Amino acid sequence: MLLLGLMLLSLILLAALTWQTVRAARSQLAAAERVLRDYAALAAAEYARKLQVGVGFSVLHRLGRQLVVAAPDPAAHAREVLARHEQPVKGIEPGAAISTLWSWVGEDAAPVPLLGVSADEPFPPEVLDSPALAGLGSDLPFVVVHVDRGESTHAYAVYPRPSGGYLVTGLEASALAPAYAWVWANEALLPDVLARRMDGNRAIHLRFKDPSGRVLFESPGRYDPYLRHTLEVNDDYGGIYRGYLVEASVNPEFADSLIIGGLPRSRLPLLLLLIAVTLAVIGATFYLLLRERALARLRNDFVARVSHELRT
Description:
Blueprint lengths: L1 H66 L6 H11 L9 H4 E7 L7 E4 L9 H4 L14 E6 L4 E8 L5 E6 L1 H14 L5 H6 L6 E6 L5 E4 L9 E5 L12 E6 L4 H4 L9 H44 L1
Antiparallel strand pairs: 1-2, 1-5, 3-4, 4-5, 6-7, 6-9, 8-9
Helix pairs in contact: 1-5, 1-8
């Protein structure tokens, strides 16, 4: 009985050890996955920030400062300004980014088309009614109003003119699209040490979506929905990409480069093997114990029978 009790106690201790090991492995795995999701969140925030700076400052702000300058012929002045900006900036050709141009005094006056506007193309009323216009001033050189047209989202940049009124530019989506790929390919979205170790952003998979959920850019590589982070852009730089979504995920194959030791491996197969071996040893011991008891019983029966024969 003592031996059976010891075997049962060993089995209970093994089960408790297995449970604690499984819990520790799950906790370690969850901590490692949280770190990878934090890296994905960092990459998403960096992508949004660099995109805002690239499109906002390098294109819209610099172009707008020149477009709003008072000129005798605003349309000719706009064509001249756009013609001077033909060299790509962060993947964008600034001169091609402006597709249409209106001059708008404001209030009840009708906007006057200056450039790229056909006779039957109406001025988007959503721009006139946008509450974002109230924030225009010295601290905010422009605001961007997004208008959903069903098949795509159109963007319009509104600049206050020093002489009064506004200049409204329609942004060409196809001209801005190269910036989405350029930022991912040329800007480090993770700390420089990690980016150099992994040869750029290969560990990061990105999706950039407009407010309606249409995918504007998707990087190559493996997308892992479990190790992803979704960032809704809520920028204060003119609202360039307000409401847009950046989905970033980390490729688990690069976990060793991001976390010491990488993602922890499962110890369950080893534990199952240990349990199987332990059960086999206990089973063999129990079998030997039963066999020993059977042999002892036969021996006692033999001795009793021989003693009885000698007495008679």
